[in-house]
């Protein structure tokens, strides 16, 4: 069998787009045993790899797990990690060989079965994993995770263990970029301890990455310490990380300035005018694969009825993105003109003009479209957001002010803050949204497919608004089967045009990653996902 090309077109595009990514510090010293403190937020769910699809939980998984692939911390390119090789004759049948010498931090050996058991667990309907959708292209998923009724199989028929280091994967159709998705945490291996005493594992997760979980007190702190026997080349250069829970990133910044925190990886909007004077070269603002959008509850009869696409488009044209990004975000956001990210580059699928006038500020046209669509439900629109992180209150208020000005009605739009990110996510998951809500997306892997399929494909894992469109689904299916780079990108962009025409969600702006750190730290950088590369940070 010949080796697959691993979608190098996408990786190279991202590498070029991110070539200028900055990093902070440059000292060669540092105390390898010293521990740093960093800002964080409680994750929504237990830290099972297939059940974590939000940023805060993802930070921890990135520290305690390593998968078959890993995305380069500067270029985003998918590189072999635990995969010795991944071979395919046809982009549908894959043979995976796992590198020898890897163990979990509890001493268990990482084998082919560590991956197969983990993927079967993640796919199973009864395990209720948020990322189960990522296994949907593997044969047998329809039996292990049927759309209706009970599952009739406990395992995926498309997964077979050949020997201790080899397993095979058979997909339901060709998926040429499948190997490049395998750096996403949902595909991480799991030790037998996860299955033998699941409650104990959830209380203190065991992985195979450069850090191990030492302790966790919800609402306060998670302490991670360097795993000294870690077999990988990307060993931690510090003694560990204390992730401190903050419900307000302004408080985190204040603690940073007071010397009570070493790293804040989301500088609040209120501090952007002062951050360079405050921190000098201890501040980063780098490109990231993040887009902020407003999602809609298409399951709600008021927002899902015919004609509401005009209302959604009208709301989009009532938002003055240029003014908001200039006034509030001080160069850390750029008005969105599509539903992906500039870090993909044009070759990777980013198209600057795809949204067109629907993303331009046109107040007269906005009023006309909203009226033609039947008006705002109840004459009002309420934007729901989590108030604990990300300076969301400021920009949501600004968006509402822009809509109110455009519609000449000071009460047309109001903000609805939810106290914590976890509560916010639970309301979304429980389908309790009655109007638009914040829906930022941080890419899982650097492919245009990842900006579209998880968010807008019918019943996809992160399709929080439950939008569904057969034409979109069909185009995505065709794109995934396409082995020609240009043809695949073209099909994905056609699918994106379907999202645009229905205004399934309103794109707001692309987000850069930002971080500030104390004088104790050096070699601080953010990866293309806007997450600190914790293992490379030096302390002292």
Describe the structure.
There is one protein chain. With 540 residues, this protein is of the alpha+beta class. Helices cover 30% and strands 20% of the residues. It is built from 18 helices and 22 strands. It has helices at residues 8-17, 55-64, 112-123, 141-144, 192-196, 198-203, 249-258, 275-279, 301-304, 308-317, 321-328, 345-348, 363-372, 392-407, 421-429, 448-456, 470-481, 485-502, and strands spanning 23-24, 35-40, 69-71, 78-80, 83-87, 93-98, 159-163, 166-170, 211-217, 221-226, 240-245, 263-264, 283-295, 333-335, 381-386, 413-418, 437-438, 441-442, 505-517, 521-522, 524-525, 538-539. The strands form seven sheets. Strands 12, 13, 14, 17, 18 and 19 form a six-stranded antiparallel beta sheet that branches. The chain has a four-stranded mixed beta sheet with strand order 2-11-10-9, covered by helices on one side. Strand 9 (211-217) and strand 10 (221-226) form a beta hairpin. Helix 10 packs antiparallel against helix 13. It is globular, with a radius of gyration of 23 Å. The N and C termini lie far apart (50 Å). Mean pLDDT is 92; it is low at 1-28.
């Amino acid at each position: 069998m010949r080796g697959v090309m691993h979608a190098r077109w996408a990786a190279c595009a991202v590498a070029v787009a991110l070539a200028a990514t900055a990093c902070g510090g440059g000292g060669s010293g540092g105390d390898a045993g010293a521990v740093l403190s960093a800002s964080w937020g409680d994750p929504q769910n237990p830290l099972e790899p297939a059940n974590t699809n939000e940023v805060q939980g993802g930070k921890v998984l990135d520290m305690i797990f390593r998968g078959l692939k890993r995305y380069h911390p500067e270029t985003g390119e998918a590189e072999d990690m635990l995969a010795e090789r991944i071979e395919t004759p046809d982009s549908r049948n894959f043979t995976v060989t796992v590198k020898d010498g890897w163990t979990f931090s509890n001493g268990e050996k990482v084998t082919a079965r560590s991956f197969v058991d983990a993927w079967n667990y993640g796919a199973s309907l009864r395990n209720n994993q948020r990322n189960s959708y990522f296994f949907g292209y593997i044969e047998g998923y329809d039996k292990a995770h049927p759309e209706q009724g009970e599952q009739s199989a406990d395992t995926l028929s498309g997964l077979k263990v050949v020997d201790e280091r080899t397993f095979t994967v058979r997909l339901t159709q060709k998926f040429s970029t499948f190997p490049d998705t395998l750096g996403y945490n949902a595909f991480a291996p799991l030790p037998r301890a996860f299955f033998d005493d699941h409650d104990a594992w959830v209380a203190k997760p065991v992985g195979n990455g450069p850090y191990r979980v030492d302790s966790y007190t919800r609402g306060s702190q998670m302490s991670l310490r360097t795993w000294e026997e870690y077999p990988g080349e990307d060993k931690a250069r510090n003694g560990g990380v204390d992730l401190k829970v903050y419900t307000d990133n302004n408080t985190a910044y204040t603690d940073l300035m007071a010397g009570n925190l070493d790293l804040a990886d989301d500088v609040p909007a209120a501090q952007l005018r002062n951050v360079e004077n405050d921190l000098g070269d201890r501040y980063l603002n780098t490109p990231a694969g993040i887009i902020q959008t407003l999602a809609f509850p298409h399951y709600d009869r008021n927002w899902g009825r015919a004609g509401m696409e005009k209302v959604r488009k009208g709301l989009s044209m009532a938002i003055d993105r240029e003014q908001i990004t200039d006034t509030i975000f001080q160069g850390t956001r750029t008005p969105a003109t599509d539903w992906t990210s500039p870090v993909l580059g044009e070759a990777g699928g980013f198209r600057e003009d795809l949204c067109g006038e629907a993303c331009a500020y046109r107040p007269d046209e906005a009023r006309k479209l909203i009226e033609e669509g039947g008006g705002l439900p109840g004459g009002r629109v309420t934007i729901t957001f989590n108030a604990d992180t990300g300076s969301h209150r400021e920009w949501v208020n600004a968006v509402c002010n822009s809509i109110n000005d455009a519609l000449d009605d000071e009460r047309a739009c109001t903000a609805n803050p939810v106290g914590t990110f976890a509560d916010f996510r639970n309301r979304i998951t429980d389908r309790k949204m009655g109007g638009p809500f914040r829906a930022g997306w941080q890419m899982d892997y650097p492919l245009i497919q990842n900006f579209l399929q998880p968010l807008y494909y019918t019943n996809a894992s992160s399709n929080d608004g439950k939008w569904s469109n057969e034409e979109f689904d069909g185009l995505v299916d065709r794109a995934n089967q396409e082995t020609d780079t240009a043809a695949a990108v073209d099909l994905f962009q056609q699918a994106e045009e379907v999202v645009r025409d229905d205004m399934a969600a309103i794109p707001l702006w692309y987000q850069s990653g930002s971080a500030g750190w104390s004088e104790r730290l050096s070699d601080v950088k953010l990866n293309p996902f806007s997450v600190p590369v914790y293992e490379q940070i030096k302390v002292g």
